[in-house]
Amino acid sequence: MSVDHFAITVPRSWFELPVEPERRDDRISALVQERIEDQRELWDHRTEIVRALRRFARSAWDSGARYCAAFAEPSDDGIVSGALTVTVLPAPEAGGDPLAALTDHVAALGGDDDGMHVDVHEVPRVGRVPRVWGVSTVQAPDGRGSFDVVLMQTFVPAGDQVALVSVSSPATDLAEPLYELFETVTDTFELIDSATVGGGVD
User: Fold this and answer.
1) Of 170, 201, 152, 185, which Cα lies nearest the Cα of 11?
2) CA–CA gap between residue 168 and residue 82 (Å, rounded)
3) How far, in Å, CA of 173 to CA of 184, rounded?
4) C-beta of residue 134 within 8 angstroms of C-beta of residue 118
5) CA–CA separation, 169 vs 182, rounded Å?
6) Dihedral (C-alpha) 9, 12, 15, 17: value to the nearest 10 degrees?
7) DSSP 8-state class, residue 57
8) Which of helix, strand or coil describes residue 97?
9) Distance between CA atoms of 202 and 187, rounded to whole angstroms?
């Protein structure tokens, strides 16, 4: 099975974002405006929410992601935001067990970051897959400085490809509840046999 078709379920309060540059910013503005009509408490934060969602969508496109969803929730300290992307990567070469080869590859990715942990997790509709999670330091998009993010990356093997489900948020003070949320959402991921769909990528 390849990663031509997949499905993932995100909370209803999240935004499923367009990533293609054509009219992307206008479409995101329209999504936020539609949401504000139902949730007036977001009105005072609309500019910040639009800015955050556009940033997530641009980053997703730049990284080659096939899917992007994001959340932007008001709190006493401002907007709590984060994003999920699904990206298709080539699988590492495996001389024996593909899962072991992928787990070793993931362990190498997280090995240089003291804030990251590597384990093998059971995704209900996929099976046992490696993941890396924790608080990681990343470069700012403009290249000026760095900042910490709560991060969970799950690697789903599919033949000669790997589906990378990555969820992150800069709200490091909420790390523990975010880990639970990220795991819950990631656990809905599944690969879909192309024979059962009419075409396109979910």
Assistant:
1) 185
2) 5
3) 19
4) no
5) 10
6) 40
7) H
8) coil
9) 16
Q: What is the number of other CB atoms lying within 10 angstroms of the CB of residue 143?
A: 7
Share of the chain above pLDDT 90, in %: 61
**CA distance linking residue 114 with residue 101, whole number of Å:** 22
What is d(CA 135, CA 133) in angstroms, rounded to the nearest whole number?
Answer: 7
Which residues does residue 85 pair with via DSSP β-bridges, in sequence order?
Answer: 68, 166
Which residue shows structure tokens 């993931």? Answer: 106
Interatomic CA distance for residues 29 and 53, integer angstroms: 9
pTM of the model: 0.89
CA distances from 69 to 2, 15, 36, 97 (A): 22, 5, 17, 32
Return the higher-pLDDT residue of 56 and 40. Answer: 56
Nearest Cα residue to 3 out of 176, 126, 169, 131: 126
Please state whether beta strands 78-90 and 116-123 pair in parallel, antiparallel, or not at all (unpaired): unpaired
Q: Three-class SS of residue 110?
A: helix
Residue 33 has pLDDT above 60, yes or no: yes
- 18: nearest Cα among 5, 7, 4, 31: 31
